[in-house]
Amino acid sequence: MAWFEWPFILSSVLTQMSIGAFIVLGMVLLSGKLCFGQADRLHKAMLVLWLMLFSALLLREWNLMLADVADGYRIGAEALLSITFFASALLYWFAEKALIGSDFIRKCCLVLAIVIGGSYLIHGLAVRSEHWLIASHFLATTLCGGTLLAHACLVRAQHKVEELNTVLPRLGTIIAVICLLTGFPQLGELSRQIEATGAVMPFVSQVISLGLLLAVVGVWSMPLVTKSKPVLGVMTFALALSVVSSYFAGVGY
Known about the structure:
By secondary structure, this protein is mostly helical. It has helices spanning 6-31, 36-45, 47-67, 77-98, 103-127, 132-156, 162-183, 186-197, 201-220, 222-226, 232-251. The chain crosses the membrane at residues 6-30, 42-59, 79-95, 107-126, 132-155, 167-187, 199-219, 231-250.
């Protein structure tokens, strides 16, 4: 993709991170480890997910208008899944905030949203399976970036489950390492493209993206190294690095 397609790239990044974060948060909520007060604060913190998803939809439409494509309003499977997820996740959120229905029904709504989010993830991997570098960046954004965003929401909600402060960064690190091990060998192919076509930017963009992914893991893991509690400001910085990393990955496709 080209630099001027930044609305579509950013739309994809925001969507992937939000869905990944919701899946992680949904699993945490289903585990029952959060008390009512912590869960209530977490639901308030989840407002950022809805803002990100809504912004992603606006950016997507803006990109279609800028592109002036005649068939721009044909909704693909991935876009349809993201919209369906948005609707189902909002349905759960409103039901939980207003305590509509029984606890079982609300949990069913949560499970439904998680399943749709998982379908989005599986579909995204399937359509990118022929290009491992693209697939690895999709995983990094959705799972690693999503887990980081989920952890930030939990920190914002002042959760008391110390285990999550250890498990989530380690999980994100494992995912990032897998993505890096998958992505680095593909740089050789991009370097050969430089010799063949003279196109330098795809290689440079991917190097920057992978380098920033390493930085994300480093910043996110700092509390583990220093044996301190995660701070929202530091995690916000890591999230910003993650968004920029994913953006450069999109530019390099």
